[in-house]
Amino acid sequence: MVHRIPVGVLGASGYAGRELCQLLSEHPVFDLTFATAHERRGERVTVGGRELQYLATDDAPLGAAELVFSALPHGASGPWVHRVVKEGAHAIDLSSDLRPGHSELSVPYGLTELTRPALRGASLVSNPGCYPTATLIALAPLLAEDLIVPGAMVTIDAASGVTGAGNSPKADLLFGEVTENYRAYGVGNEHRHLPEMRAMVAEYGRDLDLLFTPHLLPVARGILATLTVPVRYMPDDLLGVWRRHFANEPFVEVVSSPPQLRDVVRRNVVRISAHAVAHVRTPTVLVLAAIDNLVKGAAGQAIQNANVMLGLTETWGLPV
Ligand SMILES: NC(=O)c1ccc[n+]([C@@H]2O[C@H](COP(=O)([O-])OP(=O)(O)OC[C@H]3O[C@@H](n4cnc5c(N)ncnc54)[C@H](OP(=O)(O)O)[C@@H]3O)[C@@H](O)[C@H]2O)c1
Known about the structure:
Layout: E1 5-10, H1 15-24, E2 30-37, E3 44-47, E4 50-53, E5 55-56, E6 67-70, H2 77-86, E7 90-93, H3 112-119, E8 124-126, H4 130-144, E9 153-160, H5 175-178, E10 183-184, H6 194-203, E11 209-216, E12 223-230, H7 238-245, E13 252-254, H8 261-264, E14 270-276, E15 284-291, H9 295-309
Parallel strand pairs: 1-2, 1-6, 2-5, 6-7, 7-8, 9-11, 13-14
Antiparallel strand pairs: 3-4, 9-12, 10-11, 12-15, 14-15
Helix pairs in contact: 1-9, 4-6
NADP nicotinamide-adenine-dinucleotide phosphate is lined by residues 11-17, 37-40, 57, 71-74, 76-77, 94-96, 129-130, 163-164, 166-168, 293-294, 297-298.
């Protein structure tokens, strides 16, 4: 008989929480036991053909779950995941509260392809931000092979669909503001995802500046990140750098033509291409990475991490 694992989701009425509930309904051993909401507590919804009622987070029966995902806003989430661990369950925090660069605690960072050994058997994991997921997986082979010019500036221009901003009402996210439009935000290298990106670059012992500019795309989901990276020399087989690094990774696709959002939406994958830049004096590589912000950038990666934490098959319940 298969051992079924009771699971709870805090913040289940948000974009990331809803995606989690949907993916959990297709997981072979996880059983959604409770789901919480704040304003929408008490509401009944149907997920994966099953009706459930959102509880208030304060009423969540934490002790009834072996694993709890928190998709609460940052600030609210950290205290809850500590409470979950105290109750003896495993916890995965999708907020930024416990990520490197945000917290003094050294909580394993769940960028699965890059940090897998630290996740096995962990009771608490901090799930990465959506932009850092695309950016760091794209950059990792160049960091690992020490190919980036020391002290160089790596420029990251990335665009996200509107679900990246959560589902609480905001005037600048109204349909009339977003549609047929394209704009940058967080301009000036101040975005709250930068600390975790810098912390991971430091883990590789590399001395770099990151210049990150996010943009808002008039689509519901998806991120396309374009990284401009000065390199020490141009490898003969440029794409081979990524192909070797990610040879056995089921959720990383290395391709020769630039990835598009439609290649990755509703899938737990990162699709990457790399190109030598012509007509510049410093050898420079352009790396492009596309993900679905709600799947590989949030709920999908959280389930991938849960599978690793609990010693299950890593691909279980995940759309490839
Ligand atoms: N959206 C993404 O692409 C993405 C990607 C990676 C990580 N994340 C992270 O995942 C978390 C959730 O993001 P989201 O986009 O899903 O946000 P969201 O759509 O705004 O959802 C937030 C959830 O938390 C609940 N909530 C709000 N304030 C609360 C409080 N004070 N106490 C208890 N519950 C509260 C909301 O309930 P009600 O709706 O009922 O009020 C809702 O269920 C955030 O920490 C975010 O940084 C999001």
